[in-house]
Amino acid sequence: MFDQEKIQQATRLLLEAIGEDPQREGLLDTPARVARMYEEICGGMQQDAAEHLSTTFEASEAGMVVERDIPFYSLCEHHLLPFFGRAHIAYLPSGRVAGLSKLARTVEVFARRLQLQERLSAQVADALMEHLGAKGVIVMMEAEHMCMSMRGVCKPGTQTVTLVKRGAFEQDPALVDEFFRMVGQR
Question: PANTHER family in the record, alphabetically (predicted)?
């Protein structure tokens, strides 16, 4: 699906546009390296979260399932610069649970696309609601955006936090409080 040659051509043009010589020894293989990199870091474009969330296990007595501190890396769609951080997820199963690694894989599917953090949080929550049939989902993401840290306002270390609630988490503040305690936020 990725057009490696177009990415390489674009990289050569970018190098020329910033005053570099694409034929310089250190840059000769850069277009190919950049093309391989984009195929890897944008690989979520070729994936569907349903694939990871389709295998579930019976757990009729399961309470809130929380997975915290899931590292993620993504690219801001406005500047094509990275943003990275941690995701914290909880869901209330409806009698079935997903394997724990599947939550991290779901974050990865959506993070490996050109993104906005706000959309990323919502996509993860919506996928869990849809594919797990959860009674409720909450997703909190904390990230540093390189477009804010290394350019523009130049405020490294600034964290952007997004919170998305679905289902029971929208109606029950006690569930939200319990989630925050479990992820160490209160």
Answer: GTP CYCLOHYDROLASE 1, GTP CYCLOHYDROLASE I
